[in-house]
Specification:
By secondary structure, the protein is α/β, with parallel strands linked by helices. 32% of the residues lie in helices and 23% in strands.
Length: 214
């Protein structure tokens, strides 16, 4: 209907309600159909008490949400990152796909190394962390459940915290996607074993409960 008001196309577009497009079903299908064949890599930063920035690399297997490898550096390079992938799969055939973002740290040396290992690199779109949801969720959990509550002194201290964090994550932290199991599946304990006791993890930051013989 014409109401006698002239408006530029750009003006109309400015005030039109934009319908947000849903995530690509093709991408979701890829993640679901190849879950056993995908590992994801990503960095996150941790500041120390002296304002030094340390970079943590994690290598995550999608199938059981297991952290296959992690390490810390103050100076990430393509060569260093490539070596971490080698250390993540020292004696085993790596999965088919390596999922990563477009960070410049994954340079030529990195790409040559992972290609030589037999990986097919899958790059997510720029500024689209939702396309690598499992590793992003892992990093978010680590921040909320660990580093929001501790002060890191130095690189050695950070490695010690991460070891404890991933020990708890693998053995005791449950996941809805794993039917409330852990990445390293736990045996169901019978009530006949004994009483329930509380155990501390990460210096008391978290706790788990298990049965022990009387």
């Amino acid at each position: 209907m014409t109401i006698g008001i002239d408006a530029a196309k750009a003006t109309v577009e400015k005030y039109m309600v934009r319908v947000r497009k849903p995530s690509s079903p093709t991408w979701r299908a890829f993640l679901k159909n190849h879950i056993r064949e995908i590992v994801a890599v990503d960095f996150f930063m941790v500041p120390t008490v002296r304002n030094q920035i340390l970079f943590v690399l994690v290598v995550l297997a999608h199938e059981r949400r297991r952290v296959l490898h992690f390490n810390v550096t103050a100076n990430p390079t393509a060569e260093w990152t490539a070596q971490q992938i080698v250390e993540a799969f020292p004696d085993t055939t790596p999965p088919r796909y390596l999922l990563r973002d477009r960070d410049g740290v994954y340079g030529e040396a990195f790409r040559r190394r992972v290609q030589g290992m037999g990986f097919e690199e899958v790059l997510i779109a720029a500024r689209s962390p939702w396309q690598s949801p499992y590793v992003e969720r892992l990093i978010g959990s680590i921040r909320r459940e660990c580093f929001d509550h501790v002060i890191v002194l130095n690189q050695r201290h950070l490695m010690r915290i991460l070891r404890g964090c991933f020990r708890y994550y693998h053995s005791w932290r449950t996941h809805q996607a794993l039917a409330m199991d852990c990445p390293e599946s736990r045996e169901i304990q019978s009530v006949d074993i004994g009483r329930v006791v509380e155990r501390e993890d990460l210096g008391g930051l978290h706790h788990h409960y298990e049965r022990v013989a009387a």
